[in-house]
């Protein structure tokens, strides 16, 4: 069953099973619906770095924070660079990057915390969102995994950080793999495949030759699932979406299907105070 369920009042996808199991936990993914941005950013663009009107983006972020039960001051985000670095967020970083690009947490594709009242977010238009919760330590995390973040194993970076900081047992960690470009729409060349083969011996399970020679259809979500299991996550604890952001361009922004000129969705997670 699809773990990311559409709430038609808020126009967001919520991880309802997680939220029901752990009161106070909020986790999900935004859609392109319900915002104030115009043209190719129509309408709920979450990214300040894509050429949209800043005021519209901030208004959209305020709406999302509000409907998720967080003050806008708790919205915290990072400068995403397609790497595998993850950063710990404490009360001192709360609110970083919410209003402008200058104040973002530097060069981190993953953020984590175990403090209540911090709303962790990161931004997407086809890349894979990973969401983490450790029910024992209450640690939560977001990680942005495009092909580069996936092959450099940002999921494992997050697990290593959570284990080191909070004593997380990977076998008890819950992970959700969210809406992103599907194997149906993601054709890659040999340059990408060379890195996929280095990342996992099981590469033939996550990529199949496409109709064009020297090209493959790559399943980035399956690749991330494979790497998470290799890092000790219980397969039964992984919730994977079936939404393809490129096929469902009506619901989502898609970098590939809109030739790069588009907005961003946000993944979000946090504990309400
Ligand atoms: Zn597709």
Name a few traits of the molecule:
CNF1/YfiH-like putative cysteine hydrolases; alpha+beta; 6 helices; binds zinc ion; single chain; 15 strands
Shape descriptor: globular
Q: How many strands, what sense, and barrel or not for the largest sheet?
A: 6 strands, mixed
Q: End-to-end distance, in Å?
A: 30 Å
Q: CATH superfamily, called what?
A: CNF1/YfiH-like putative cysteine hydrolases
Question: Over the alpha carbons, how many angstroms does the gyration radius reach?
Answer: 17 Å
What is the CATH topology classification name? CNF1/YfiH-like putative cysteine hydrolases
Can you tell me the residue ranges where pLDDT is under 50 for at least 5 consecutive residues?
none
Bound molecules: zinc ion
- The chain-level mean pLDDT equals 98
What is the second-level CATH architecture? 4-Layer Sandwich
Sketch the topology as an H/E string, one letter per element.
EEHEHEEEEEEHHEEHEEHEE
Given the structure, what is the number of helices? 6
How many strands in all? 15
The portion of residues forming beta strands comes to: 15-25%
Multimerization state: single chain
In the sheet with the most strands, the strands line up as 1-2-3-15-7-4
Structural class, from secondary structure content?
Answer: alpha+beta
Provide the helix percentage.
Answer: 10-25%
Number of self-contained structural domains = 1
Instruction: Using the coordinates above, name the CATH class.
Output: Alpha Beta
């Amino acid at each position: 069953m699809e773990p990311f369920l559409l709430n038609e009042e808020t126009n967001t996808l919520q991880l309802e099973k997680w939220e029901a199991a752990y009161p106070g936990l909020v986790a999900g993914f935004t859609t392109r619906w319900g915002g104030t941005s115009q043209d190719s950013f129509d309408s709920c663009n979450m990214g300040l770095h894509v050429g949209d009107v800043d005021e519209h983006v901030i208004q959209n972020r305020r709406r999302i924070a509000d409907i998720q039960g967080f003050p806008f001051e708790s919205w915290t985000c990072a400068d995403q660079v397609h790497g595998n670095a993850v950063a710990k967020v404490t009360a001192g970083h709360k609110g970083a990057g919410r209003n402008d690009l200058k104040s973002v947490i530097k060069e981190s594709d993953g953020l984590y915390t175990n403090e209540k009242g911090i709303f962790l977010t990161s931004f997407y238009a086809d890349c894979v969102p990973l969401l983490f919760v450790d029910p024992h330590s209450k640690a939560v995390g977001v990680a942005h995994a495009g092909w580069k973040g996936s092959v450099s194993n940002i999921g494992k970076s997050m697990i290593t950080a959570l284990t080191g900081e909070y004593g997380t047992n990977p076998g008890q960690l819950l992970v959700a793999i969210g809406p992103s470009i599907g194997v149906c729409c993601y054709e890659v060349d040999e340059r990408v495949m060379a890195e996929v083969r280095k990342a996992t011996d099981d590469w033939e399970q996550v990529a199949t030759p496409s109709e064009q020679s020297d090209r493959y259809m790559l399943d980035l979500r399956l690749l991330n699932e494979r790497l998470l299991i290799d890092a000790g996550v219980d397969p039964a604890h992984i919730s994977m979406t079936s939404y393809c952001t490129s096929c469902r361009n009506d619901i989502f922004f898609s970098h590939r299907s809109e030739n790069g000129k588009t907005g961003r969705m946000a993944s979000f997670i946090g504990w309400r105070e």
